[in-house]
Amino acid sequence: MEGEIDHRGTRRDFIHGELHRRDLNIDPFRQFADWLAAATEAGNFDATAMALATADAEGHPDVRFVLLKHFDERGLCWYTDQRSQKGQELAVNPQAAAVFYWPENDRQVRVNGPVERLSDAEAEAYFQQRPGSSRFAAAASEQSQPIANRAALEQRVIDLQARYPTGDVPRNPAWGGYRLLPERFEFWQGRRSRLHDRFLYQRSEDTGGVWVIQRLMP
């Protein structure tokens, strides 16, 4: 590449809404559920996609998109191969940050906190809900490990399909789930002239576990 690619003149205004303290649910999980539903209703076909950031033992960060699969007042859950890079990082540094971005509503949500592994029973239950092709893909792949070429990867699936012709391929014990246990939520609403609305929910021992809401400057 020759020369600089300049996007300093690329901009748009945020016109879809505003956010006031009176609009917020006292429970950040309910607030999150409302915004997730609104994103879906606005036409976002990947509203559950979240950028998940982890770091290794030395603090080197890494980020990728994963799909949120379920959540409740305990936390936000997703599934993956625990031999993957994120799995290895979470094994030595079980902390993560996630962000959801919904441009249809000019909104984003950031979540931070420790991470715990889901039980084998929870992983098995979700694995069996997946389409057969997804189960075979998960069983065939050692996520993040090198492979010679695409043909070799597809052959691994073919071999498993021959071994399990009825489709009952077993879940590899390394394939499982995680739960992010939020200590902080931040709700961001884009506003005109970049004077955005930001509200932080934070829970600490000082508040007896009660969520405290604070407006932040943009």
TrEMBL record:
Enzymatic class: oxidoreductase
Keywords in alphabetical order: Flavoprotein, FMN, Oxidoreductase, Pyridoxine biosynthesis
Cofactor: FMN
Biological source species: Acidithiobacillus ferrooxidans
Catalytic reaction equation(s): pyridoxamine 5'-phosphate + O2 + H2O = pyridoxal 5'-phosphate + H2O2 + NH4(+); pyridoxine 5'-phosphate + O2 = pyridoxal 5'-phosphate + H2O2
Record Pfam families: PNP_phzG_C (PF10590), PNPOx_N (PF01243)
Pyridoxamine 5'-phosphate oxidase N-terminal domain ranges (all copies): 47-159
Domain named Pyridoxine 5'-phosphate oxidase dimerisation C-terminal: residues: 175-218
Family classification: Belongs to the pyridoxamine 5'-phosphate oxidase family.
Entry function: Catalyzes the oxidation of either pyridoxine 5'-phosphate (PNP) or pyridoxamine 5'-phosphate (PMP) into pyridoxal 5'-phosphate (PLP).
Subunit structure of this chain's protein: Homodimer.
Record: residues binding FMN: 64-69, 79-80, 86, 108, 143-144, 188, 198
GO biological process, one term: pyridoxine biosynthetic process
Protein name: Pyridoxine/pyridoxamine 5'-phosphate oxidase
EC id: 1.4.3.5
UniProt superkingdom: Bacteria
HAMAP family (UniProt xref): PdxH (MF_01629)
